[in-house]
Amino acid sequence: MKYPLASSSWDDKEIAAMMEVIHSDNYTMGKKVETYERNFAEFFGSKYAIMVNSGSSANLLAVASLFFRQHNGLKPGDEVIVPAVSWSTSFHPLQQYGLHCKFVDIDIETLNYNLEALRQAVSNKTKLILAVNLLGNPNDFDEINRIINGKNILLLEDNCESMGASYKGKMTGTFGIMGTFSSFFSHHISTMEGGMIVTDDEELFHILLSLRAHGWTRNLPGTNHVTGQKSDNSFEESYKFVLPGYNVRPGELHGAIGIEQLKKLPAFIKARRENANYFKELFYNHPDIIIQKEIEKSSWFGFSLIIKETAPFTRADIIKLFSSNEIECRPIVSGNFLKNPVLKYYDYSVAGKISNAELLDTNGLYIGNHPHEIKDLIRKTADIIPIGKII
Q1: Which pLDDT value is given to residue 389?
Q2: Where in the chain are the domains?
Q3: Could you report the per-residue pLDDT of 323-364, keeping only the tens digit for each?
Q4: Among the options 23, 71, 187, 188, which is catalytic?
Q5: Which CATH architecture group holds 265-384?
Q6: What's the pTM value of the predicted model, to 2 decimals?
Q7: Is 370 among the catalytic positions?
Q8: Among 54, 57, 236, 389, which residue's Cβ finds the most Cβ atoms within 10 Å?
Q9: Which top CATH class is 12-258?
């Protein structure tokens, strides 16, 4: 039994949706994308949703939009607190817009912020906290909000690995001023490639609409927060550029698939949580391995395994064992991102010690979860790992 990291979640519904777009001969962003955005916003309880071509682009536009607000916009050099473990494009937009990244250690069990380290890292220079919900696990948003209460600090959520997770009845991705999502193949729903930004802020919504497509005014409503009032002359407005934007638009195929995938998301999350319950049952209190501790309701992107320093085997031993048994595994996201050579391009500092992220970096890996039942594969994984013995 091969245990892959991910598997397809498509069936005839997605095929039919794609064929409808093909027969329409309209492939560029249009009504299917609009419908998917509207459905997505409603599902997650947000006022606005903006689809883009990837979760990475969602992070890029979210950061960029904060520089173009009429009041209290970010500026180069502003301090942003980030966790030491996340995906590269959680961080790169911050570097690309000249922000100062202050890296903070993670909690070795939840894999999200070490909350005490976060509390100590906040300074009078801090303008933004990036909360990354890692591998499906929500952050402790009550505690984060207590930390920033009364301070002029924005909260931005990278929820690309955690679609469908919730914290005290509220969906993750909706706690910050904006939240970003990914619908890449291996994620909770798949639109081939795709990402989404949600927000309740109308000004940011309008900025995002312009930034998504060249920085032009064409997609803005007549009265908007970017230009005020658009001209009635559609010819003049068709190529009027007002912001230094991008072209990160999705296509109609992606929107059409998203409409069908979103309908299935509750069933996908249910299956992932049932798989996770079985995984936790088998690995709970394992003498040699630390597994992720759930904060509220995780959507369980995958299953992390961190080899304890006292274990009689190493991560390399486990990787070799998994490889010989056709169990795919990967590092836990970036590992300790501070060890990546790309940091030479960053303006950054480190708040305190980064010991937990370092342990994750040297001893951690993860295996996949799927939107359907995989108990046999989880059982297989548990059975081949010796307890308290040298491999």
Answers
A1: 74
A2: 12-258, 265-384
A3: 999 999 999 999 999 999 999 999 999 999 999 999 999 999
A4: 187
A5: Alpha-Beta Complex (3.90)
A6: 0.96
A7: no
A8: 57
A9: alpha beta
